[in-house]
Amino acid sequence: MSTQASLIGLDSEGLAAALREAGVEGKAVAMRARQLSNWIYVHGARDFAAMTNLAKDFRGSMAERFTLARPEIVTEQISNDGTRKWLLRSGPGIEFETVFIPEPGRGTLCVSSQVGCTLNCRFCHTGTQKLVRNLTPGEIVGQLMVARDALGDWPSTGENRRVTNVVMMGMGEPLYNFENVKVALGLVTDGDGLALSRRRVTLSTAGVVPMIKRAGEEIGSSLAISLHAARDEVRDIIVPLNKKYPLGELLQACRDYPGVSNARRITFEYVMLKGVNDSLVDARELVRVIRGIPAKINLIPFNPWPGAPYECSDWAQIEKFAEIVNRAGYASPVRTPRGRDIMAACGQLKSESIKERASTRHAELRSAELARMPG
């Protein structure tokens, strides 16, 4: 890994500060910052030598001080349905996953905000990995840049881009990394930068109620709520954050979300768990508790992972559940599981290296035990 400071993840103010530190002065700072931003975020430049409209000596001085390195790709897996999953590394033990889901006419990148997670949602594989730390703006934005590199998706302002949508639904709780996510999504939605429309960026939260209004005011993305239950006694178990911010408080925050309207609906994510939250009583209660909130409901068949304590609801039951929600006037598409064969589906993300290290440690301990045993 380079010891040079990275410019990836710096907004115009951050680039200007880096330039001043490098000795650039006066009006040249703003001009150079704009040029660097264009090369980094519009054209996806991988090195300073590519910046042909900058003086050669300036490019050289930049290359001595800074790097444009993205997170390192540790592994890339491609599902039989076209879904791609990258395990990325930005330092020792700092590993996280990002997933690209291609669909007709669009492509969605599922981006992580933390290494690991603190929420311990019982159906989620990521929740079994302890939080290591928050990702920086560069590590968050770097996921989109890695995807665009791999997909040949530059310039960011070009037509027919393959990544058309970004969802903050990967590893971690975005609202527990608010400031870094805010900076990163500012870059993602900068029309002179990574150039995605705010309406094509969705931030998903398990329900950090005090931060939801701020997210609407300061980030302005679409909002998704990992709801998964319509009764506190059930949600307390499967989404333990509910004990801190119960359903009544969470749903009021949704009603108050800045800009929410029929044109800008809140998405409620609802994973279908057999015998837990999938009864027709649950469906009717879901419709009741979200009444008055402009919303759509994504019904997500549970994606299994090793050691998971739940099973996916039967398909016939999911259809009955969806029918009740639909009849109440809510769009309730059943999300087709994508990337299950490479553990890239919703709720399955977990740094592969964590699992590998765990199995290696187990093997090492077993070898040590055998070595201590008498001949």
What descriptive keywords fit this protein?
375 residues; alpha/beta; TIM Barrel; two-stranded parallel ribbon; 11 helices; 18% strand; disordered C terminus
Describe this structure in words.
- The chain has 375 residues and is of the alpha/beta class.
- Helix content is 35%, strand content 18%.
- It contains eleven helices and 13 strands.
- It has a nine-stranded mixed β-sheet with strand order 3-4-5-6-9-10-11-12-13, covered by helices on one side. A two-stranded parallel sheet has the order 1-2. Strands 7-8 form a two-stranded antiparallel sheet.
- A hairpin with a 5-residue loop joins strand 3 and strand 4 (84-91).
Top-tier CATH class of the largest domain: Alpha Beta
Low-confidence stretches: 344-349, 352-375
Alpha-beta content class: alpha/beta
CATH homologous superfamily of the largest domain - what is it? Aldolase class I
Structural domain count = 2
- What is the count of helical runs? 11
Spatial strand sequence of the major β-sheet: 3-4-5-6-9-10-11-12-13
- Tell me what portion of residues adopts beta-strand conformation: 15-25%
For the secondary structure, the number of strands is: 13
CATH topology of the largest domain: TIM Barrel
The radius of gyration is 22 Å
Can you give the helix content as a percent range? 25-40%
| Shape by Cα distribution | elongated
**SSE order, one letter for each helix or strand:** EHHHEEEEEEEHEHEHEHHEHEHH
Through-space gap between termini: 45 Å
Mean pLDDT: 88
Q: Largest sheet, if any? A: 9 strands, mixed
The CATH architecture assignment of the largest domain turns out to be: Alpha-Beta Barrel
